[in-house]
């Protein structure tokens, strides 16, 4: 979090100290939860509840970036017994204006960034004196406000990032006439800023340096600091106000209410509450904010801390695709119950145990039904883990039995349209979309041909559409026995007779769900279809605010539910109306809708997102970050917002970040990272409402969790009764323990001639023949020498029993299949999949499936679209046994953007079709050759940069591509200064197209020259921007990040103007 934003949040805390409705609480003494709304509306409601009249009013800016101006307003409001009202800095809200008049105010303090226009409009009100309190910067404004305090008792000093620390002492400061001061970024504060006789420091020494004579309240985190405040200051603990210590914003208004009774504000998270000295089971706990930020279970635990009875859930399988969680009588957060990220499931699919995603969580009273992405094996057991965010602590339910012995049934059949019948089953079915032949429909000897079957509601339902239209008569529907459930049981063939009665009523919207600023799902009274998919037919507020794209019926429509996405034109917070134009949809009887208008209430989203889970997937070599909610594309896909360091503190490059709703996948540039514990830092990532995540660091264990695989065959050398076998695994294997590859009992030969298995350990011990085992290739390969056994390589086979890899992962199966023997002479070694990377225009890194001992540069060449190209490979360097670097001749350098031309560049090996006479020379010590005729695409890992030219004269203005001097390697960066307008137009030519660059990330001369505008944003390869003032040759330019289309990026990219700046009149 940047300093300005940190100070701003602290200011918000102080600003709203007096914004909680005292009268509201007094009116309802049994209330245990208080909630707020938008800043302007909340301030007015608080004023209504707490002040029928007020001689003084404090008016502060509601704009997010200026809320910091009101830092010291709370003590001033307490002194003046004044409410704090907020309004946009550039305009006076009409309701606020009316409230100032109705209060009978005689004096209004106008704070910080409030404009003169607003100030003058207030001053024009009858009988009001306006006092403007503002300084040259945020801290100066706070000092100016503090100067209005009469004889303050003391000062609380918090750090620039001490938002929670300020909230911890807010009620005490308001009740006891203490000022709140902010230390400088280095933790220092001037003696003159400490007012009163007493000074307290809140927070650790990294935020606020020691002050002689000052007492410090600090813990290892914000919650422990909060506890230290409770222990060190005097409070009345009859009532305690419970606020979320992570989101903070929802709870800020409670401080003045708490101050009236000298009550304490307790900070909690959604799953943790500390035991606080002075707070007991008899203390009355009042939650501040909704259950999303202060769950009911947290309130229940106030006074006892984190010791609470375990949640009582009953978990059982419903069918092979679903399971249910039956809740106890506790008050659970509905959003948490519906969040599929709060559940982790492991079960068996095809006899292999693995993690299976939960794709849906539906609540029906006290039952939550969880639907899996795929069904599990019948007669198998599974494990469900329920996250602590839902249950208060992590709960694990093991040995959930999935046993399906029920035959599926047809529960109902109904005509829902002129050509559509809906069939509802007792459980989810499989492959409904391909089951046209399983339904027969007939009316008065007329047979209807089935056009399509569409599965709905996880395949509990099937909509059968026919060719033709039904008459109003009796329809016979036959359901065949070919329909199966996930256990393989078939539905019993059955016939139904139903009456067709035409529906003439147009479809109506009866409700909505999943309403956010970015979209809403409308619920109709019946299944519908789309008549007109034009996005202009679906809008909110007015017809300018249409949905993002035309309706996609296959994606956006699910039976009677229509999802509208308003990402580009967000729904406003609070009350709004969503419209569907007449004739845009129709029911399945062809009744078109009338104009539909639905009121939708959007709650203000001020909940700061958090990271729920970070894990490494060794199979895909990616790190997955799962957030608590859907995130903003731009910030979440900014790879520079994620920093990964290894155990030595070295940065590990993240090549790309890809967002899917609430999940970000980070691709590592290194295809084979060292195993160990890394640290991933995440910052500057926002949710779709613009709330930024707090900077956070996670340990990420880069480990191999995938089970090793048995080889497909076993190589051999030798003849007669003297052979050497080579058992080659794809990774380093365990050499100790029960599954060690050194254990001879793990290997057997099947002797086809005698129809028997020969265990090699037993054969060695019994003296049947000699066996010698050794390991090679870093414990990836087992070499077994056999002397005295007459092998028939054409008929005999080899078996491997269960073994484990170096990380302790063992093979899924207890033994391999019977593996064929293959002569070592026939073995070839491949280039690894995705193992070819261009790291710059003259360097290609290549990784092989196995090590080679001899590499020959002539074995390789570069193809373009499958044909040999003119690119020249000039040299080869061995980096590791299975990795080499190929160097491209500078006269035939690779393009900067390998994908720009649409051509596919690949690294190929000689000896393929049409080149069979060529002999591959690259080989290992056993004579196994590099595979001939391979072709692997070259992955673009080339960082973007500037175009350079030779033979240039940089003492003169840039004159194009021609040669006019002797300077070589000169980047194309030049400027043209306009004397008339006093600005410089800077042009920089990049060697490939870039992601768009805006003026906010361009810095010129360390900020001395302001970037006014970007004319060409780099997406064409050219960046042109306008800078205030006159620039000169060698002036410095820095771009925070440049990123090419392949996802390669450079941060803090620095360059300078290379040519004499041209001057125009």
Tally of strands:
74
Helix content estimate:
10-25%
Instruction: Report Rg.
Output: 36 Å
CATH topology of the largest domain: Immunoglobulin-like
Instruction: Note the gap between the termini.
Output: 44 Å
Output the keywords.
mainly beta, 1065 residues, 8 domains, 37% strand, Rossmann fold, 5-stranded mixed β-sheet, 8-stranded mixed β-sheet, Immunoglobulin-like, 16 helices
Provide a descriptive summary of the structure in words:
- This protein has 1065 residues and is mostly beta strands.
- It folds into eight domains: 38-150, Rossmann fold (3-Layer(aba) Sandwich), CATH 3.40.50; 314-402, Immunoglobulin-like, CATH 2.60.40.1220; 410-499, Immunoglobulin-like (Sandwich); 509-602, Immunoglobulin-like, CATH 2.60.40; 615-687, Immunoglobulin-like; 713-826, Immunoglobulin-like; 828-940, Immunoglobulin-like; 948-1064, Immunoglobulin-like, CATH 2.60.40.1220.
- Helices cover 12% and strands 37% of the residues.
- The protein has 16 helices and 74 strands.
- The strands form 19 sheets. It has an eight-stranded mixed β-sheet with strand order 49-48-52-53-46-47-51-50. A five-stranded mixed β-sheet has the order 59-60-56-55-64, with no helix packed on it. It has a five-stranded mixed β-sheet with strand order 70-71-68-67-74, with no helix packed on it.
- Strand 46 (713-719) and strand 47 (722-728) form a beta hairpin.
- Helix 8 runs parallel beside helix 9 (222-232).
- The two termini are 44 Å apart.
- Mean pLDDT is 86; it is low at 1-31.
């Amino acid at each position: 979090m940047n300093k300005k934003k940190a100070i701003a949040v602290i200011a918000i805390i102080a600003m709203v100290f007096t914004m909680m409705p005292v009268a509201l609480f007094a009116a309802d003494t049994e209330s245990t939860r208080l909630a707020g709304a938008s800043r302007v509306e909340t301030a007015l409601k608080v004023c209504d509840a707490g002040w029928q009249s007020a001689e003084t009013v404090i008016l502060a800016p509601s704009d997010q970036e200026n809320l910091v101006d009101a830092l010291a307003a709370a003590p001033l409001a307490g002194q003046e017994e004044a409410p704090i009202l907020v309004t946009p800095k550039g305009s006076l809200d009409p309701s606020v204006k009316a409230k100032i008049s109705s209060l009978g105010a005689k004096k209004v303090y106008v704070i910080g960034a409030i404009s003169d226009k607003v100030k003058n409009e207030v001053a024009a009100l009858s009988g009001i004196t306006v006092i403007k309190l503002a300084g040259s910067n945020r801290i100066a404004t706070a000092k100016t406000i503090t100067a209005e305090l009469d004889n303050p008792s003391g000062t609380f000093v918090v750090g620039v990032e001490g938002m929670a620390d300020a909230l911890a002492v807010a009620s005490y400061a308001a009740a006891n006439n203490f000022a709140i001061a902010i230390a400088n970024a280095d933790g220092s504060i001037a003696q003159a800023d400490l007012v009163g006789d007493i000074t307290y420091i809140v927070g650790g020494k990294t935020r606020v340096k020691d002050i002689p004579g000052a007492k410090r309240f600090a813990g290892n985190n914000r919650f422990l600091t909060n506890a230290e405040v409770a222990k060190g200051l005097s409070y009345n603990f009859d009532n305690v106000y419970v606020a979320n210590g992570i989101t903070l914003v929802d709870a800020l208004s409670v401080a003045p209410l708490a101050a009236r009774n000298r009550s304490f504000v307790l900070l909690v998270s959604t799953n943790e509450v500390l035991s606080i000295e002075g707070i007991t089971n008899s203390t009355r706990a009042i939650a501040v904010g909704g259950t999303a930020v202060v769950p009911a279970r947290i309130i229940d635990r106030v006074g006892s801390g984190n010791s609470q009875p375990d949640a009582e859930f009953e978990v059982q399988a419903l069918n092979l695709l679903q399971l249910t969680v039956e809740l106890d009588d506790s008050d659970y957060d509905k959003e948490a119950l519906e969040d599929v990220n709060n559940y982790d499931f492991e079960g068996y699919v095809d006899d292999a145990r693995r993690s299976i995603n939960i794709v849906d969580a539906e609540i029906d009273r006290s039952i939550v039904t969880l639907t899996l992405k795929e069904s599990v094996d019948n007669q198998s057991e599974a494990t469900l883990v329920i996250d602590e965010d839902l249950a208060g602590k992590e709960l694990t339910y093991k040995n959930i039995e999935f046993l399906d012995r029920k035959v599926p049934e047809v529960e109902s059949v109904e005509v829902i349209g002129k050509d559509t019948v809906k069939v509802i089953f007792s459980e989810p079915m499989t492959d409904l979309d391909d089951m046209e032949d399983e339904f027969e429909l007939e009316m008065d000897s007329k047979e209807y041909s089935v056009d399509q079957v569409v599965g709905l509601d996880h395949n509990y339902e099937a909509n059968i559409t026919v060719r033709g239209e039904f008459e109003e008569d009796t329809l016979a529907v036959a359901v065949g026995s070919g329909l199966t459930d996930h256990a393989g049981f078939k539905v019993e063939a059955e016939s139904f007779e139903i009456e067709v009665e035409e529906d003439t009523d147009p479809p109506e919207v009866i409700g909505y769900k999943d309403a956010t600023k970015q979209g809403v799902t409308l619920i109709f009274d019946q299944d519908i279809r789309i008549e007109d998919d034009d996005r202009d037919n679906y809008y909110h507020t007015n017809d300018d605010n249409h949905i993002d794209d035309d309706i996609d019926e296959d994606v956006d429509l699910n039976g009677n539910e229509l999802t509208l996405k308003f990402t580009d034109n967000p729904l406003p917070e609070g009350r709004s109306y969503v419209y569907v134009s007449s004739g845009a949809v129709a029911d399945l009887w062809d009744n078109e809708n009338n104009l539909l208008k639905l009121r939708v209430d959007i709650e203000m989203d001020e909940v700061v997102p958090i990271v729920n889970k970070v894990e490494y997937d060794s199979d895909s070599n990616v790190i997955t970050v799962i957030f608590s909610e859907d995130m903003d594309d731009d910030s979440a896909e900014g790879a520079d917002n994620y920093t990964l360091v290894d155990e030595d503190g070295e940065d590990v490059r993240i090549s790309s970040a890809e967002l899917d709703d609430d999940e970000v996948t980070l691709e590592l540039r290194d295809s084979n990272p060292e195993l160990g514990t890394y640290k991933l830092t995440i910052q500057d990532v926002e949710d779709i409402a613009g709330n930024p995540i707090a900077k956070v660091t996670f340990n990420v264990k880069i480990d191999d969790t995938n089970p090793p695989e048995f080889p497909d065959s076993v190589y051999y050398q030798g003849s007669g009764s003297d052979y050497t076998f080579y058992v080659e695994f794809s990774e380093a294997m365990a050499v100790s323990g029960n599954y060690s590859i050194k254990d001879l009992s793990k290997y057997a030969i099947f002797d086809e001639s005698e129809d028997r298995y020969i265990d090699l350990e037993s054969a060695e011990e019994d003296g049947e023949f000699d066996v010698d085992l050794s390991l090679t290739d870093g414990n990836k390969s087992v070499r077994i020498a056999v002397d005295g056994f007459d092998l028939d390589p054409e008929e005999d086979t080899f078996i491997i029993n269960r073994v484990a890899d170096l990380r302790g992962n063992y093979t899924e199966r207890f033994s391999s299949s019977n593996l064929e023997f293959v002569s070592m002479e026939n073995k070839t070694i491949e280039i690894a999949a995705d193992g070819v990377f261009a790291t710059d225009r003259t360097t290609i890194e290549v990784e092989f499936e196995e090590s080679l001992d001899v590499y020959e540069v002539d074995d390789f060449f570069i193809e373009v679209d499958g044909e040999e190209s003119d690119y020249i490979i000039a040299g080869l360097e061995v980096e590791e046994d299975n990795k080499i670097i190929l160097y491209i001749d500078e006269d035939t350098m690779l393009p900067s953007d390998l994908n720009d031309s649409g051509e596919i560049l690949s690294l190929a090996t000689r000896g393929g079709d049409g080149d069979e006479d060529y002999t591959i020379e690259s080989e290992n010590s056993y004579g196994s050759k590099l595979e001939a005729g391979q072709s692997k695409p070259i992955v673009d890992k080339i960082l973007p940069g500037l175009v350079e030219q030779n033979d240039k004269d940089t003492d003169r203005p840039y004159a194009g591509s021609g040669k006019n001097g002797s300077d070589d390697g000169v980047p194309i960066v030049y400027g043209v200064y306009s004397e008339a307008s006093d600005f410089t137009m800077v042009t920089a030519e990049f060697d490939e197209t870039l992601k768009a660059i805006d003026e906010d990330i361009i810095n010129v001369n360390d900020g001395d020259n302001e970037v006014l505008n970007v004319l060409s944003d780099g997406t064409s390869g050219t960046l042109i921007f306008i800078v205030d003032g006159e620039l000169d040759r060698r002036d410095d330019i820095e771009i925070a990040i440049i990123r090419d289309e392949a996802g390669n990026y450079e941060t803090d990219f620095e360059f300078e103007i290379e040519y004499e700046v041209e001057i125009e009149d």
